[in-house]
Every structure is written in structure tokens, then in C-alpha cells.
Amino acid sequence: MEVGERIKELRNVKRYTQTDLAKLVDLTYIQIGRYEKGKSNPSADVLQRLAFALDTTTDYLMNGRTDQVIAQLTDKELLRQF
Questions:
Q1: Is residue 65 scored above 90 in pLDDT?
Q2: pLDDT computed for residue 74 by the predictor
């Protein structure tokens, strides 16, 4: 499965239209369609915004990997520094 297919799959799971997703990541629905059809690939910045909007990771969007390590930070000062 390619990046665009994963974007489309996650968008459908969230029941977003291409327009809904485009608004969340400050793009046009036309550009979302290009990604989903594999005619274009998102830049690193756009990929990050897409991952946030779709509640996933950039690694999953790019590689389909779900074996991620999730760290929980509870120290507010440390979080502020990041």
C-alpha cells in the first residue's frame, strides 16, 4: 500500500471528505486527491500535518509501519522545552 492509499484509508475511517481533510491541513481538496491517486507526494511538513489530522504517525503514512514506540511524557517542564 502506498502513501496515498493510506491517506485515503485513514480519511475514510474518520469519515472526512477530501475537503474536510484539506481544511484541517490547509490545502485544497484537489491536492488531497493528487496524494490519494499517487500523482504527488506530500512534503515533510504536509506529511506531518496529515499525520496529526488523521491521528497517526508520519512513519505509518510513509511506510505502513505500526510497530511504533509510544513514550508518555508527564514532566510539564520537559514538555514545555520540546
A1: no
A2: 58
CA 74 to CA 25: how far, in whole Å? Answer: 28
What is the 3-class SS of the chain, one letter each residue? CCHHHHHHHHHHHCCCCHHHHHHHHCCCHHHHHHHHHCCCCCCHHHHHHHHHHCCCCHHHHHHCCCCCCCCCCCCHHHHHHC
CA atoms within 13 A on the CB side of 16: 21
The dihedrals phi and psi of 13, each to the nearest 5 degrees, come to -60, -40
- Calculate the dihedral angle through the C-alpha atoms of 55, 58, 60, 65, rounding to the nearest 10 degrees: -130
Give CA–CA dist 61/3, Å, rounded.
5
Of the two residues 1 and 18, the one the predictor is more confident about is: 18
